[in-house]
Amino acid sequence: MKKNRLGIIGGGQLGMFTCIAAKKKGIKSIILSETEEFSAKNFCDRFFISDFKNFNNIDKFIDSADYFTIETENVPISIIHYIEKKKKVFPCSKVIEIAQNRLKEKKFLNSISGINTTEYLQPKNFEDFKYASKNFNYNCILKSKELGYDGKGQYKISKNNLDIFKEFNFDKFILEKIVDFKKEISIILIKSNANAINYPIVENIHKESILRESFYPAKINKKIKSEAISKSFEIANQISLNGVLAIEMFILKNGQILINELAPRPHNSGHWSMDACNESQYDNLINSIFFNNLTPPKVIAKCRMINLIGNDYKKIESLKKKYRCYDYYKKEIRDSRKMGHYIILDQLNS
Ligand code: AMP
After folding, report:
1. Which residues line ligand 1 (CB under 6 A)?
2. Which atom in ligand 1 lies closest to the alpha carbon of residue 261?
3. How much distance in Å is there from the Cα of 307 to the middle of ligand 1?
4. What is the pLDDT along the chain (350 residues), one digit of tens a residue?
5. How many angstroms separate the CA atoms of 263 and 14, rounded?
């Protein structure tokens, strides 16, 4: 029987865009969502609403699809292992397990020759934490090892706020040195058994730890560009990637590249590929899972992708008159919540 059903864990905007890409290619999408209302609800062919840990429902979800993927790495790894006993998951549990835990991620990355991350320490208790903060000149961030996104679970440390953390459970956190980077960039790799591709590097602007804007082309020189790409492929090889991996990087003032984060799924900084490339990151994710053949991305325009965060969403109707806008159909506006994005295109040779 032809395999044409994709199970997606999570139903946010990344899941929604994956469903749209799947439909274009004749693939049915089935969402597993923990919340009653979710962006992909009107775009998937079927959905299950269930706690990710309810194995009865997971069994039904497993039966409903041929292959599986995630749209968030914040999924209990036990579920991925459980699915993997019966069906294939893209990317596989090894990739997800590393990318969903900052400590495992940093250890893995620093174990690869030529790859470095920011410096970090693992304070065990308050005394340890004070010592570690001093070691970083009080210029550091406590980051949760797991379940953090868009700045959630992160605390900026200063000499004056140390006492707040007296009763803190440090086991779940690492302390990371703040780097004075020149730029942030990201790159998306996709691998199938047949080939591997990368989307061109974009430059990213974050505010308060949330991505505000990505633009192509990134304003970086040839040397940094080729180094960033070769480091990305080295990481993808070492992790035995199948499916999508987004890699966020800091470029320091001296040109050194540090890897900030891995995301084992389509990425916000890759939304632009829907409007400015022949095939998007979502299209190629479907290609990698079902067709084992990727379309090398061809860029057709310069592009700025701007997120609509929280109350920015109120501008969407007026923005629609000028730009291509994407609504994530979130039930309510919340501060720091990604509600949609819009796209500004420009000619390649301008
Ligand atoms: P993260 O969730 O760890 O990717 O952090 C989100 C954003 O916060 C990054 O993209 C940076 O803009 C900023 N940030 C995080 N960690 C650091 C760091 N060690 N040094 C400087 N900026 C950081």
Report:
1. 118, 141, 143, 151, 176-179, 181, 184, 206, 209, 248, 260-261
2. 4
3. 17
4. 789 999 999 999 999 999 999 999 999 999 999 999 999 999 999 999 999 989 999 999 999 999 999 999 999 999 999 999 999 999 999 999 999 999 999 999 999 999 999 999 999 999 999 999 999 999 999 999 998 777 778 899 998 898 999 989 999 999 999 999 999 999 999 999 989 999 999 999 999 999 999 999 999 999 999 999 999 999 999 999 999 999 999 999 999 999 999 999 999 999 999 999 999 999 999 999 999 999 999 999 999 999 999 999 999 999 999 999 999 999 999 999 999 999 999 999 87
5. 12
AA identity, residue 177: K
Closest Cα to atom 8, ligand 1: which residue? 209
**Closest residue CA from atom 19 of ligand 1:** 178
d(C-alpha 112, C-alpha 92), whole Å: 20
Domains and CATH numbers, the chain: 5-90 (3.40.50.20), 120-177 (3.30.1490.20), 181-346 (3.30.470.20)
Q: Which atom of ligand 1 is nearest to the CA of 206?
A: 12
Residue 348 CA neighbour count, 13 Å, CB half: 6
Give the three-class secondary structure for 80.
helix
Two tokens, residue 254: 């001296």
Output the CA 49–ligand 1 centroid distance in Å: 33
Structure tokens at 67: 């292959």
Nearest-atom number in ligand 1 for the CA of 140 is 19
